[in-house]
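Dear all,

This email documents one entry for the complex benchmark we are building for the journal club exercise. For each entry we list the sequence lines for every component of the assembly. Then comes the predicted three-dimensional structure of the complex as a token string, followed by one or two observations. Please use this as the template for your own entries, and keep the labels exactly as they appear.
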Amino acid sequence: MAELREKAKILDDNDMRRAIARLAHEILEKNQGAQDLMLVGIRRRGIPLAQRLQEEITSIENVTVPVGELDITLYRDDLSMLGPHPIVHQTVIPKAVDGTTVVLVDDVIYTGRTVRAGLDALFDLGRPKAVQLCVLIDRGHRELPIRPDFTGKNVPTSQKEVIEVHVKEIDGEDAVYIMEKVENN
Amino acid sequence: MPKKGVQQMKHLLGIEELSKEDILYILNLATPMKDIILREVKKVPTLRGKIIATLFYEPSTRTKNSFELAAKLMSADLVSVGVSTSSVQKGESLKDTIYTLEAMGVDAIVIRHSRNGVPNYLSSFSHASIINAGDGQHEHPSQALLDLFTIQEHKGHIEGLKVLIVGDIMHSRVAKSNIYALNKLGAKVVVSGPPTLIPNEVREYAEICYSLDEAIKDVDVVNVLRLQLERQQTGLINSLQEYHRFYGLTSERVKHAKNDLLVLHPGPMNRGVEIDEDVAYSEKSAINEQVSNGVAVRMAIYYMLMGGKEQ
Amino acid sequence: MILKNGTVLMNGAFERFDIRIENGVISKGGHDLSPDEGETVIDCQDKIISPTFVDMHTHVRLGQEYKEDPQVTIRKAIKGGYCALNVMPNTKPALDCAPMVERMLKTEAPEGFHIFVTGAITNENGTLAETEDIASAGAVAISDDGHWTENSFLFYQALKYAKKHDLLVMDHAQDMNLFKSGKIYEGKASFETGLKGFPKAAEASAIYRDGTLNAQVGSRLHITHLSTLMGLETANALKQIGVHVTMDVTPHHLIFDESAYLSYDTNIKANPPFGDERDRKALVHALRSGEITNIATDHAPHSEPEKDQEWEDAPYGIASIDSAFEVLYQELVTTSLVPLETLLTAMSTNPAYLLGMRHGIGIGNEANLTIIKLNEPHAISYEGGAKNNPYVGKESSAVVTMVILKGNVAYEYGK
């Protein structure tokens, strides 16, 4: 059995706040404002991150962009390799995605498979004008031709390592850790 | 992340062997599944590359179509064995039929059979998942799950509700599966019907009230069972007219029920026998909703048995 | 031959003495018998010696050898400690005429092994079989086993013929109209499995009809494979008013109750069905008290394909003659429910008495003896033939170590 041990804390709550503020600015800059914009968080930790981006955007532009919640379980390509029964949650999209610019939000990008599933799920909901990808951490090791448009921090990792993003809403704190797999004897 | 208390299941044979957690897990899964049915693109790729066979030894339109549609919406491939056209007619044994399907690579077999315990028997040797779509007078688990899902959608919860089941309790697998499920989830069950069609043993799970007029007064939900018309020939009921007078769900009876009474019927209905048309199509009735909920619940069942299975 | 130091069952009680066998009969009993020169001595220290068992209800598959060859049935019976079978008439063709009875009686069997024949009460035309011919051909009993004799008038006549020829009338007491409506008794199991239930009164009401008819005839009426408390009480009530009624019970009705059906295991599918825990306890109690005097296996072998199918389509029947004693010892004796003496007597001399067979440990009797070792834990093994024996694999601490038929060792454990 492998166990995870903390190796380093890469972001604390202030770092995270600053990173999200910067990402909000970048999103607005690239899209020249918040017109037709929708933030869609990928369950689970993409959702609180999308909500924070929404708050930042409101404080900058004084408009509230809609936030959606995307559950990608039914679109995964690795279901039968996982343990028993990942739970399926509801996908909640506040308005039709047709004609909007959707910014997919997730905490970490790694192989790119989650984003691939997210894109499939999104396109079954309608036809967005454009889709952009925003992640807090890019840890490398991509297996698919997918690249984020907005990245909070690039963290080069080895495949033995795991990135853990903690958010207040779920984990009680804002922080990002790099963890190491340790073999138990 | 595995949910606590949920068994890793290979087969769905009956409600009786499920825990409360298992049932709630399926009901919770059915909600996102229903969203899929309601949206523009009614398909998810979850079961791509899996094969599901439906093997119905008894006539059925609704349950068979529902299981087959659910399979298609989840991108599974489907083998629909028509029993009247297959080698089953040539006397092939059930065991051989299952082995044949397995050799074709089938991952799950949805079976309906007039014999009790056939799904249990098949699960003793089948490598594919066995899903009980109704066996004899034993169980019809997917029907009970869709009934409960419909109740939960309308009432927000199951626990503490009082649910009346009316009709042929003795011969009804729908009644039995419902009774087990409602008990496990903490609802109170009342059964009503002619004394010849209510077995004594149901007392362990439900209150018996032979008078429908009495029983209807304070229940939250009434589930009206289909009356098999051939019961008349075997001496169990005297006439359809008498049955209707005593056990038919008429609008007059509904008037004496709670305002927010929910009316269910597993279909197909004998209008004018166990239920009147104006009740079946009233705003209290969720009979058509049961059909779409059936697809959602069957998608959830497939997902539970095949979606996250460890190979 | 001398059997040394055995614990011998005689007249329903254990006693320790040596037995000498000469020319196939028991010639002497006593303490410290000393062997003549060249005489075989079998050490029976710590072993029980019982009269061999007699099965008064066996289905021998003459004409349906694919289910179990009659020779295999006989071999399994001997292994189980038996020296006699009473063959039920539902062979193919049925034992409903003198030639078939004669044919059955000619079945090859080791010396000292007895085949008794039960002729049919009614034939396939629904009229009485030639009861007097059947009796003259050597049948000791008549029965419509597998079914009840529905026609009261015919059964009444059959009782009269039976009385004239001193035939035992073995009654499969079960109201057929009620039986036809179900597969197992109405109860918790029928509710939970969906298997159609029929009321237990089917047995008691049939016993009542047959008992009251016999009250007017005085034949030897025997209720076979009794299964319910109500049936037992009905038979006891009939005895109270002086009607001649005896009863047997099967190993499975002493062991299983209706909860066994929840598994849909076709190997425990038998008719009559199992009652509930109260019924089973009443049967065990009645065996202990002597109200039920006989244990009969109702050995009913079936082929594997017949049993390996949907429960409702599989035939009724349990084939356990090879392990009846071992499993009953475990279930009833080690649990102190029934004394060993009672069990052995109900399996040996009591059924022999009803079949008119001189049997038991006594000077001049045929030396048919079953030697048993207790405290020998082992798993009950499959002995060939039909596989519908639900006890295979179960633990038992008693084992039949030797069967002596007419003075010869016919079976030895482990050999």
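Observations: The longest helix of chain B spans residues 287-307. Chain B touches chain C at residues 16, 93-95, 113, 115-118, 120-121, 135-139, 173, 176, 199-202, 204 (CB under 8 Å).
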